[in-house]
Amino acid sequence: MASVELAREPAEQAATLPLSRTLIDLRSRNFAAVRLSPRDAVRLPRGFGDRDTGPVTLVGEFVRPGVYDIRRGERLSEVIARAGGLTAQAYPYGAVFSRESVRQRQQEGFQRTARELEQGLMQVAAGQAVAGMRGSTDLSGAIQAGQALATSLRQTRAAGRMVVEANPVVLAGRPDLDVLMEPGDLVAMPKRPNEVTVVGAVLNPGSLQFATGWKAGDYVRGAGGEQRFADGDRAFVVLPNGQSAPAGLGGWLSGGPPIPPGSTVVVPQDPSPYETWGFLRDVTQVLSQVALSSAALAVIVRSGSK
After folding, report:
1. Which domain, by its residues, includes 217?
2. For residue 246, is it within any domain?
3. Is 281 within a domain?
4. How do residues 183-210 score in pLDDT, each as one tens digit?
């Protein structure tokens, strides 16, 4: 700060006379001679800082994990460098980048979808009560499944995950992928995993040891195969970086491309009972959102316990 502004009322105290404003140089030799009078006002200009208000948190496989204050315009690669870089066990392809503003939007989306499900279920239940008197098909089981899905959405905590590139080697050659940091951001860097998880409509859901070259179909078979009412055509894979892709289980369980370690294969149930209900047409998409958040939160918890 090199100067301040001094505002002084005129001596005549006339209402029509404006305040006199003087800029005083703090480096001047005459600064000490300035005398203040009653009703004077001194304005200190706000200084510009290069730091944003708030820290970011790095957990997991960083050389020096912890909380770091960031400068305005600082990027992910710079914060990683300040943390000493990655350890030899780090798995940047599975890094979770979580942002609070994104988490809030995702959480609102979960609650909104749950409300739509519940409203639709009320309409279906009312129609079923009338149809039951006429001997129509009983949809009570499907209604219960829809209620369970709505409850799951309400209880799921959004992770706020953004799909970003977190490998410093890649970022050095592709600075356009280097995300700008914001206060409150969380970066969880996991160890390289050695398993692939299979969930949903399979006989024995759980985690299987990673095998080079195995596809989604191989892991589904390792989990006992599909249940009777599974929908293999809509199965998908949650990749370690947070993206999702079709599992390719159609046909003879070809399984698509090889699955990287740390992935989750999700096999949904057959949605045919719901397809006549407009509000349940995107059941698989809802399950995908829940699976993505669950996978991201699991990485954050494991990395934070290091």
Report:
1. 194-270
2. yes
3. no
4. 999 999 999 999 999 998 899 999 999 9
